[in-house]
Amino acid sequence: MELDILLLLSYKDNYYKYNKYIKDYTLTSECNTILKDMDYYYTKNPTYTTIKWKDFSTWFSAVKHSSWNEEKVKTYQIIFKKLDKKSSGDLPNEEIVKHFVTMDYATRIFNEVAKVAEGLSNDMTPVYDLVSEHQTAMPLVDEDTSLLTDENLEDYLLDASKKSGYSWRLECLNDSIGKTGVGDLICIGGRPDSGKTTLLASEATYRASMMPKGKHVLWINNEERGQKVRLRQIQSALKKSKDEVFQNVPKAVEEYQDRVGGKDRIIIKDSASINVAEVEKLIKEYPPDLIIIDQLSKLVSSKSKNYNEAQRIQALGEQARQWAKEHCTVIFTIWADGTAEGEKWIEMNQLYGSKTGVQGECDAIITIGRSNEETVADRNKRYIYIPKNKICGGDSLLINGKFDVTIEPIKARFNNG
């Protein structure tokens, strides 16, 4: 098995495609040494596309490890002779890479289970996370999508121009950010009761109405009660007050489902402590065209157990970024800290838990401010600011726009001012 993986990686393209999946502890020390020296060999000989094992053996013994004693060199020469003999046959199937990926995860899962079995831990979350990661990693072995070539250049340019993707219900976001799609990570920040969830409900129901059949909005809710959020979504989709909804509930449900494109278009996972592995499972079960995380800071990940708060929030931002790249637009909410209380225009450095980490991951940041100086008549005024915008699909003069808007809380809608 080890010789087969070395043979597969003796082709330069395969080496740089699959080497990242082969971990040290899945190979013997001898094969590890050979694997690492293969990288050095390719670097020193950039025109080589394959390794000829007789030549590699000579270089390995006479150049790379000329100081080794004869007995140690003989051990490797035996391996090289076997490789040279096997290389005359068919190239090993690329499926072998999956075996080594599974060995890697099996080892890590065993170590975590052993901690529980030995009484060193009572937390099984790392095990669940690793199982979920393994399921996610396997398809990535089949297809390397990290290289951008000219084959789909028109698609890349179309995506970059933001002529494709989904628009916003709130027009000022179209003016500033423009259309969004796969790869876009967006943060909505603000103080409590500023309207973050209302904005999400409005935009989620709007996007759901445009999604193709079989796609969903996946709403990770760890803030308000799920039933309250669902009511807010129904209000927003229908632009009705609670009293209007309750006048005829069956009719309201029918109208809501018709408005968003059918049943189960918006899936709510209602949990105060949902973890990353559970989100991965939901993504597979309900393929999303939009993922909403309300709030990001309450998401649980075993990987960040030993991090401080800023590092933990940044790690969660990195995870959200990965979901955006692999699946669809991800929008998450995060609180603004106490310095933003009563402020109209909230800056990036006022977001909770991280002064640069989360902000660095995002493609766009939307902040919602409200002033303590407003009169009672102006209590529904809000101030939307786009302090960061790398999407730039709207008006070039409004990339970092500031917009006076109003919130209509009884109907769960935002309106341009």
Question: Which tags fit this structure?
Answer:
single chain, 417 residues, alpha/beta, nine-stranded mixed sheet, 16 helices, 9 strands, 46% helix, elongated
Spatial strand arrangement across the major sheet: 3-2-4-5-1-6-7-8-9
Q: What is the H-and-E element order?
A: HHHHHHHHHEHEHHHEHEHEHEEEE
Q: Taking all residues together, what is the mean pLDDT?
A: 87
Pick out the low-confidence regions: none
- The value of Rg in angstroms is 27 Å
Which class best fits the helix and strand makeup? Answer: alpha/beta
Q: Largest sheet at a glance?
A: 9 strands, mixed
| Measured distance between first and last alpha carbons | 66 Å
Helical residue percent? 40-55%
Strand element count: 9
Q: How much beta, percentage-wise?
A: 5-15%
Summed up, the helix count is 16
Outline type: elongated
